[in-house]
Design goal:
Elements lengths: L6 E5 L2 E5 L9 H5 L5 E7 L5 E5 L11 H5 L5 E5 L2
Antiparallel strand pairs: 1-2, 2-5, 3-4
This protein binds iron/sulfur cluster (SF4) (2 copies).
């Protein structure tokens, strides 16, 4: 079984796990986040394109999981912070 490493950001109500080996840098998650909480980083993903992280918005993540559900590569996992 292959295991993927993740980078974790905490923002607002959400823990944002990004599996950089899966992210292709399409930007869909950035476009669809209702809190404008996702932005580009200088860490590169599977095709050498930039990957993303949370923590960019003023209000923080609300753990809606839109990014997790919309990512075509299943590169994001959101955990709600209690
Ligand atoms: S939607 Fe998925 S593949 Fe596209 S930039 Fe966001 S995390 Fe990466
Ligand atoms: S869970 Fe919702 S608010 Fe949080 S980063 Fe993803 S799309 Fe944005």
């Amino acid at each position: 079984m292959r295991e993927f490493k993740s980078i974790v950001n905490e923002s607002g109500k959400g823990k944002f796990y990004l599996f950089t080996e899966l992210c292709k840098g399409c930007g869909l998650c950035i476009e669809k986040c209702p809190k404008n909480d996702i932005g580009w980083t200088d860490r590169l993903g599977i095709y050498g394109a930039p990957t993303v992280e949370s923590g960019r918005g003023e209000e923080g993540c609300n753990a809606c999981k839109t990014c997790q559900n919309i990512c075509p590569e299943c590169a994001i996992l959101i955990e709600k912070i209690q």
